[in-house]
Amino acid sequence: MSGDTVKTAKIIVRxxxxxxxxxxxxxxxxxxxxxxxxIFRIALSGxxxxxxxxxxxxxxxxVARMPWERVAFYYGDERHVPHDDAASNYRMSCETxxxxxxxxxxxxxxxxxxxxxxxxxxxxxxxxxxxxxxxxLDPARPFFDVVMLGMGQDGHTASLFPRQPVLQEREKWVATxxxxxxxxxxxxxxxxxxxxxxxxxxxxEGKGKAExxxxxxxxxxxxxxxxxxxxxxxxxLCDKAVTEGVS
Length: 247
Ligand code: 6PG
Fold this sequence. Notes:
Layout (H helix, E strand, L loop, with lengths): L9 E5 L2 H18 L5 E5 L5 H8 L2 H4 L7 E5 L1 E3 L9 H10 L18 H16 L11 E6 L24 E4 L8 E4 L1 H5 L1 E8 L5 H8 L15 E7 H4 L4
Parallel strand pairs: 1-9, 2-3, 2-5, 5-8, 8-9
Antiparallel strand pairs: 4-7, 6-7
Helix pairs in contact: 1-2, 2-4
């Protein structure tokens, strides 16, 4: 399977962040319902953008539509802090979604943060390999159905930060990263792991993302987000503030 890059990705524009979240919630339900066999695997992004989406998925409008028993939730990255730390992506996802939907119990796989960062990254990779059923990724058999990504104002995505060795990692599925301009040691999916997907969706909201979106879309190789690929389809799901002036 040869798939999309940031230059061939679809661009979908919605009026505002609420509409972006609604579109993504509808998209996830449709994709999960359409997968008739096996587990629907999604890697969640962190930060603040996904909060509206997670709250929507936990709302009465959506909670009955998602086939939760067939959905497995993973994380694209995590800050290496305790899971009850305010900076934890896992904590944010629990506060906005998993604490409110009992059916997700046992289907959520947080990145461990109770060992050293290296130990925890290796442990998460072993979990992913066990769920995949192999030690090596097969391009013809993507692991994730959906990888959700955000984008920082330095062009990072997941915890693939500028100037970090993890940008060169092509063997590991999960690795550590110590950003030189953001807090916390991080654990992140690597480019090969993100590429092992049927859909990559960048959720972008607000004019603060416009410059980076424009540069990534133009193929600026200096930005980590520019190097994201997928075996399947890639979509930039943006609000108007992100895409004004970008083709
Ligand atoms: C993280 C994220 C990171 C995030 C971007 C955008 O752990 O911080 O995974 O990659 O998606 O930094 O963050 P916002 O959505 O808060 O702008």
